[in-house]
Amino acid sequence: MSLQTPSIAARHAESGALICEDGLARPPWAATDPLLRAYYDTEWGMPVRSEQGLFERISLEAFQAGLSWATILRKRPAFREAFDEFDPEKVAAYTDRDIERLMADSGIVRNRQKILATISNAGATVTLRAEGGLPALVWSHQPRETPRPRILSDIPTRSRESQALAKALRSKGFAFVGPTSMYALMEAIGMIDTHLLDSHRRGSSGTWKRL
Q1: CA-based torsion, 16, 200, 138, 90: positive or negative
Q2: Choosing from 40, 44, 69, 208, which is the catalytic residue?
Q3: pTM of the complete model
Q4: How far apart are CA 197 and CA 28, in angstroms?
Q5: What positions does the entry give for Zn(2+) binding (predicted)?
Q6: What's the chain's average pLDDT?
Q7: 43 domain-assigned
Q8: Does residue 200 have a known ligand-binding role?
Q9: Domain of 65: which CATH number?
Q10: Residue at 211 is within a domain
């Protein structure tokens, strides 16, 4: 989330779902901010299985490190424009001129290491096609069970599977893919369902039964 889930620091650990004015139950992080609410209601936790979609989310998870997810979400349109809609082949071909263009773009997070990692990760994504592709690698780490959280503190920040995914991606040349950020990725793309049990979105991905 973080591409996707709000930062762990932003979570109210002992909070359960809140009933919003529309009568629907949401976690505290998605209860008030209209942008976060729309993201939660329509996108977060829904399956993402395309190469481009996963590359974008891995990239945004990297840029989110140290920042709030709300910041990245508000900048996402600018990120998409700056990085050619996160087309891996186009990004992999970026030159020093592109790096300087990105460093001058106030619409995105101007962090040189993260920009360089995104370009390198694009190349790794393209290379992975010969081994089945990024979606196959990522989804091969889906666990057999999903958390059943009643309050936010029930939700882990990493798992054995997220550690294995991070290790596998690093072995293929990816950077900024730690176990915590990969757990957030798994939440965001529906590999696990960490919606609170009484949230109106629990089970919405179709990947897991509601309970």
Answers
A1: negative
A2: 69
A3: 0.90
A4: 14
A5: 195
A6: 92
A7: yes
A8: no
A9: 1.10.340.30
A10: no
What phi and psi, each to the nearest 5 degrees, are found at residue 162?
-70, -35
In the residue annotation, 69 being an active-site residue is answered as yes
pLDDT, tens digit, 9 for 90 and up, residues 56-76: 999 999 999 889 999 999 999
Query: Identity (one letter) of the amino acid at 94?
Result: Y
Determine whether 21 is an active site residue.
Answer: no
Q: Judge whether residue 9 has pLDDT over 90.
A: no
Backbone dihedral angles phi then psi of residue 60, each to the nearest 5 degrees: -70, -30
Q: Which of 39, 44, 94, 183 is catalytic?
A: 39
The residue range of the domain holding 104 is: 8-188
Question: Is the Cα torsion angle 3, 159, 29, 10 positive or negative in sign?
Answer: negative
> In degrees to the nearest 10, what's the CA dihedral of 33, 39, 40, 41?
100
The closest of 147, 155, 133 to 191, measured between CA atoms, is 147
Q: What pLDDT does residue 209 have?
A: 64
Per annotation, catalytic residue among 56, 61, 161, 187? 61
Known catalytic membership, residue 43: no
